[in-house]
Structure formats: C-alpha cells, structure tokens
TrEMBL record:
Keywords, alphabetical: Cell membrane, Membrane, Transmembrane, Transmembrane helix
Leader sequence segment: none
Subcellular location per the Swiss-Prot or TrEMBL entry: Cell membrane
Chief location category: membrane
Pfam families, per the entry: MNHE (PF01899)
Protein name (database record): Monovalent cation/H+ antiporter subunit E
InterPro entries per record: Cation_antiport_E (IPR002758)
Membrane-spanning residues: 12-31, 37-58, 70-92
Native source species: Acinetobacter radioresistens SK82
UniProt family annotation: Belongs to the CPA3 antiporters (TC 2.A.63) subunit E family.
Amino acid sequence: MKKSMHKIPVLEWCFPHPFVSILVGLSWLMLAHSTDAANLAMAVLLGIVIPKLVQPFIIRTPDIHWGMALKLFFVVLWDIVTANIKVAILVLGPSRNLKPKWFRVPLESDHEQVNSLLAMIITTTPGTVSAGIDQERGDILVHALSAESEEEEIETIKQRYEAPLLIIFNVEPAQGEIE
C-alpha cells in the first residue's frame, strides 16, 4: 500500500504566518533605517526564519474579519485621543468634577481572545482601567476616572468595542444579542 504524503504548498511552508512575516520584515527594515539589497535580503530571511521558529507555539491563527478590525483600530485610536483630552481637562480641573466609579461589564462571550482584547482596549483608553476578567461571573471589572452613568459606560464599551470584536472573530454572543 502506497503512503500518501501531505504536501504543503511552498508559500505556506515558507510563510506559515504571513502577518508575522510581514511584521518581522518591516520591523527589521525600520530598525536598519535602510532598504538596500542586504537589508531587504535580511528582512526576507528573518520573515521566513522567525515565524518558522515560533510556529510550534502558535496553535492556530484565527479567521479574522480584517475590514472590521481596521475600523475598530481607528475607533480605538480616536477614543484614545479624545479621552486623553477629557482626562487632561478632568485632572487639571477642580476635583469635584471627578466621579470615579467601579462597575462590571457583562461579557457576551467566553471567547478568550475577544475578552482579552476588550480588557486591553478598556485599559488603553485613558480614564478607564480594567482590573480583571472574571470568567466564572462572565464580566470585566472596570474603574472609570469619571462616569456620570454606569449604564451608559457599560453600553458604550459593549457597542464601541465588544460588538466589533465579536464580529472580527466571528463569535456568536453567548448571553444574548447585542443591539
């Protein structure tokens, strides 16, 4: 009986994680401050070798909705810029304007990547910090520097960040539908 060998296409073999290869190659070129032939060759070599070395540690690459990911990137970037201005005004203004609050944001999914990225986005947006993800309770504990309404803050987080993350990772909400 003849054994059939599973053939891997050359491009897939050389670039098991194309996004990582691109990041590594571009990072090398930016660190080198040069696009001469030697640096281009080194960028390609590193773009092949480093992803091959880390391949055993990357279990799977998720299917991502890249258009929505790009949109979310710009939403978060905009929110970071505007939140910096709001936080500066709050911090430099009278302390009576501060209304710090702790609240829990219920999670719509138990998807690790969605929940981790949601916590990271909350933390990177000035004025809010995620203190931890409670998988058993299905929520994220959040501290806001100044929040008028807990419900409004929760709804903003869910609509601006969580809903797009669920779409990006093709995850169905577990606890209910997002409006």
